[in-house]
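Posting here for the record, re: 6-chloro-9H-purine.
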Amino acid sequence: MATQEEIDFIRRLPKAELHVHIEGTLEPELMFKLAERNKIEIPYKSVEEVRAAYQFSNLQDFLDIYYAGAGILQKEQGFYDLAAEYFEHAAADGVVDSRIFFDPQTHTDRGISYDAVIQGLVRAAHDAAEKFDITFSYVHSFLRHLTEEAAFESLAMAEPYLDDKDFYRIVGVGLDSSEVGNPPKKFARVIAKAVEMDLEENSIHAAEEGPPKYVRQALKILKPKKADRKSKTLKPIIIDHGNRAMEDPALVASLREDGVVLTVCPLSNLKLRVVTDISKHPIRKMLDAGLKATINSDDPAYFGGYIVDNFVVLLDADEIDLRDCVTLARNSIEASNMGHNRKMHYLDVLQEMEDSLPLRPVAGAGGQAPRLQS
Ligand code: ES4
Ligand code: ZN
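Prediction output follows.
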């Protein structure tokens, strides 16, 4: 098991969280509070009963419960409270920048205005930025089980908020929800439209449950066109999850060559049975293949932990050591969209923290990976 000192070390690592769904941060306690405030009946008697219901056998199983939970969010203040609680957790875990997905269609399809959603989320983010050392951006995600047309309609709702980028910080679009049968190419045109609207920091959930070819499709959609590549500073290509890409060696090679960032979510993978056992998690293979993996919490209220817990579950299983933790944190800071000086500062901090660690044993010497004692 990880020692307290090791957990503290991970917590102190400056980290960017690149993959968290704000609706997935709805803790049962807040669920009850909002249900009472909005006079909504929920089919559970207690917080414990809700937590006990969070047993999933696959992604769809989870999504059904997740969308039902999100139905409790009704007003701007609810979205504020939701995000405010997330930022408290994130800051306590050493997150210095959050790239947050939100699912507008989940709310607008039941009559909640886009304005209520985004104003609540953004107000909480600015309050958090004042209170903590944290910056943020929002990613407008499309539900891939719905139609392309619905995604176009949803994208149009974001338009009034795109001019004030400093305030709203909607920086890109995402693609989430039921993956198998809803390949990235279904949304190629709407993502191209988003790019025309200057939404460029896009990412696609791919090969969480779906086949490696979905990652190939996603790369085709996300790769900047040659003309754009020259004129603009290069942003990394981001694939959310990407687990099953590891089944395809040629794909792994191209992910490495293009420096594609993978936003990996270990507790999510365990809870949704993407892996049967943490020792079967692809993170080790990803790191050994030189891929830019990062660690993220996905839906922390549903999967049993925030970002530090996601590092710790891998450390506990000896899939990674503390030097890997530094690498993973460094990958996240490098991939984040924070300002240059801020980025350089955190990279310096990470270097110092890495230098403070005991050296790894020489390969073949039979030594154990270094641990920190408490
Ligand atoms: C999600 Cl874990 C996961 N996968 C796909 N879509 C999602 N939306 C929220 N969590
Ligand atoms: Zn996700």
